[in-house]
Specification:
Length: about 260
């Protein structure tokens, strides 16, 4: 015990109180930010109630390289090239821990609007689910991963839709959402456990977002003219209605 004290007394420990005091924790929000690390690479920091977490933005969030590869997924995918390969319980647990790290990161990145990285990280976890589904022999292990597939699919859909909205592609965003809803409904229908298949919030969340996109999309010139035409007819302003009708016909002709 004395040796332990002498060892720690000789260490110069860095107090992070200054950082925490200048970064207030908000329990109702995800408190995340990007900073430049001492190695010159960008890091992701997350403020939690009792301190702060820091993650790498490339590779595994913890910055390790298991078996000298970027991720455990990559390691096991190489092993899976052997047709006799089987994932054991310990393998699945290790993959689950890696997936949890990626989950913590992509949730923060979604909050920060880094949608490309969200897509990459959610694709990583979906690939873990695929690997376990194909190479694990235990149904219990498979379901431990599969139960999260609808949620990860929802986040992936949200990120891809957000990228479309950044380009003002409202139709494209709605199409992405529709495909995501369809995919999740297919996943849920495959669950035998009613607790996993009944009325899941992932579908409701995407449906609500689709409605929000529809309501917020800018009205097109054609829609605006059509509405004005109906108003002119209702008000018996037939000369204005004729002008508006001609403009609408001109738009249709230019599209042909």
């Amino acid at each position: 015990m004395k040796g332990f004290r002498r060892f720690h007394k000789g260490l110069k420990m860095e107090d992070i109180s200054r950082i925490l005091n200048n970064w207030e924790f908000n329990p109702e929000d995800i408190c995340a930010r990007k900073v430049e690390g001492v190695d010159g690479r960008e890091k992701l920091q997350v403020r939690v109630d009792l301190g702060m977490l820091q993650m790498e933005l490339e590779g595994r969030p913890d910055g390790t390289q298991p078996n000298e590869l970027a991720t455990l997924l990559e390691y096991y995918e190489k092993k899976a090239e052997d047709p006799d390969f089987v994932l054991g319980d310990d393998d699945c647990e290790a993959l689950g821990q890696e997936g949890l790290q990626f989950y913590h990161r992509y949730i923060c990145l979604l909050r920060l609007g880094d949608f490309d990285r969200v897509i990459s990280d959610t694709n990583h976890n979906l690939a873990i689910f695929d690997l376990v589904a194909k190479h694990s022999k235990g149904d219990e292990q498979k379901m431990m991963f599969e139960q999260y597939r609808p949620y990860v699919t929802m986040v992936n859909t949200r990120a891809r839709g957000e990228l479309r909205l950044l380009d003002d592609d409202y139709d494209g965003a709605i199409a992405v959402v529709d495909r995501g809803i369809e995919r999740i409904q297919q996943l849920l229908s495959a669950f035998e456990d009613p607790d996993l298949s009944d009325d899941r919030e992932e579908v409701h969340a995407l449906e609500a977002w689709r409605q929000e996109i529809t309501e917020n999309r800018p009205i097109s010139l054609k829609q605006r003219l059509a509405e004005q035409l109906q108003e002119a007819i209702a008000d018996e302003k037939y000369e204005r209605a004729a002008v508006l009708r001609d403009r609408l016909r001109g738009l249709e002709k230019n599209r042909l």
